[in-house]
Amino acid sequence: MVRIRGHNPEFRMRSLFEPAARDDVIARLERFTPECERQWGKLTPHMTLTHLADQLRMAFGEVRCGPPRGALSHWPLNYLLIHVVPWPKGKAKGPPDAFRTAPSDWATDRAAVVALVQRFAAADPAGSWPANPIFGKLSGHDWGALCYKHLDHHLRQFSC
């Protein structure tokens, strides 16, 4: 176990593989509307929905990405950013591959994200998972924490 000063070893990042975390995200997505007020960043609520869908599709390998590169694609930095360190508000930029889908119909796009969350939660965390373009090779458990953290980050962005 890696010891990090100031880090509570009992703390564990929530994961989409946990039913309570999945149910919480789905309930928040169902409350998410185009009228939700942005707290930071530039994405609109609708752009956020399609971005979330693209990131979940990335976890399934359905959105092909360039090879991982940079320091964040290696342990321990990828571990720290996925499991420990809070993400900055409005400072980080996602990979271009996570912004492929254009918004269309709100209800359809939101239903797609909910379906992807459910599909993700039903996947096998011990199975084979693709590399992430920022964080490199990840286990299913890392992807579960990353996807939860990403969804939570953007739902907080709109106070949902």
Task: Describe it.
The protein has 160 residues and is an all-alpha fold. It is 44% helix and 0% strand. The protein has helices at 19-31, 45-59, 77-84, 106-122, 140-157. Helix 1 (19-31) packs antiparallel against helix 4, helix 1 runs parallel beside helix 5 and helix 2 runs antiparallel to helix 5. The N and C termini lie far apart (34 Å).
Give the structure's gist in a few sentences.
The protein is built from five helices and no strands. The protein has one domain. Helices cover 44% and strands 0% of the residues.
Please supply descriptive tags for the structure shown above.
mainly alpha; 160 residues; globular
H/E element sequence:
HHHHH
The coarse silhouette is globular
Unreliable runs, pLDDT <50, ≥5 residues? 1-10
What's the assembly state of these chains? single chain
N- and C-termini, Cα separation: 34 Å
Major sheet summary line: none
Question: How many strands appear in the DSSP assignment?
Answer: 0
Beta-strand level of the residues, as a percent range? Answer: under 5%
The level of helicity is 40-55%
Q: What's the tally of helices? A: 5
Structural domain count: 1
What is the overall pLDDT average? 89
| Rg from alpha-carbon coordinates | 15 Å
Secondary-structure class: mainly alpha
